[in-house]
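Case study 2.
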Amino acid sequence: MNKRWIFLILTLFQAVSSGLAQISIEECYEKARANYPLIRQYGLIERSRDYSLSNAGKSWLPQVQLSAKASYQSDVTEIPLDLSRLGIPGVSIPSLSKDQYGATLEISQNVWDGGAVGAKRRSILAKSESDEKELEVNLYAVREQVNRLFFGILLSDAMAEQNRLFQDELQRNYDRVSALMQNGLASQADLDAVKVEQLKAVQSLTQIIYGRKAYLDMLSAFVGEEIGEDASLVKPAAGLPLPDGVSRPELAMFDALAAGVDAARDEVNASLSPRLGLFLTGGYGKPGLNMLKSDLSAYYIGGLRLTWNFGAFYTRKNSLNLLESSRHAIRVQRETFLFNTSLNRTGRESEIDKYRELLRSDDEIIALRNSVRRASEARLENGTLTAIDLMRDMSVEQMARQDKILHEIEMLQAVYNLKFITNN
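Prediction:
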């Protein structure tokens, strides 16, 4: 790989790292949430809720039922009286027809339902609320993926910048060794040793650039828009206060599920009440209300109807016990979630403390490695050290700088993972 190709790669990196677009992690959260396909489920939940509420409300509308029948029977009821024997000649008691026809139209109006419709509406609203909260939990999980990609890009940027500085150092030493060769103080092997490190640094930068591109492509897919390679991610401030408390959407979901149990309990209690309603039935048939009249005739019946299903009392205890079991299960799930969250939080806090301790010593390590490297450069100038030994010292210093970069980004990511765990 010649110097021209090295220059092109470095130019590409500089274009990537110094772009105009500035993207924060909070913007990525919002865009990823809006772009995630599951977000469309909100509209479906709302429409389902509205349809169900509309159906429940229609229970108060007048109910209309139409029925018709035609029949033929082998025998009919007759009155066993002979009026001629009673001294009433010429008069006979008519008998029912064996063929009968009829059509009825009944209109009923609910007057009092014991609170059943109201309980049903509350149950529908509670179900819709719990569905939305569960959806919110699923959408919230997208943040964890965004964290991984966002900080992966930040790490790539920092590593690439450090690689560029390292290549500058290598180039300076390459020029130094070339000058020493002209004075007979270095050999071709020394120059080749520097060249090998240069090529390895270029390979490392190539891996970083393509790794960054992979992270960038995945982040683009999450946020639903193309993030160009000239985009620059805003590095969060290192002094962020650690979040306190827990306000995860799972807690709101558990509350919504518990409210759904309360609404279901209201439905069970409402099922124990009687129902009162008005009705009006109109009919036309043969026979009509007058069973002894064999002609087609119209008729109507109106009144007040009371119904009471005592079967609900048989299942009430079991139904309430089932609901109490559901409430207990929700409580256990909530306690388990808080327990696991507390464990995860403790682990993340320990991780943050670890990186803080590592960062305290990183600067000292780098300073010492830098001192060793400078001393090696001086010895190289004096001809008492080979370029191979200098490259070793430079590589060790480079690794120390990379360790610091890694610790900085990993600590930031640990902070944001803690923010994800607590939602604060």
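The CA atoms of residues 63 and 149 lie 59 Å apart.
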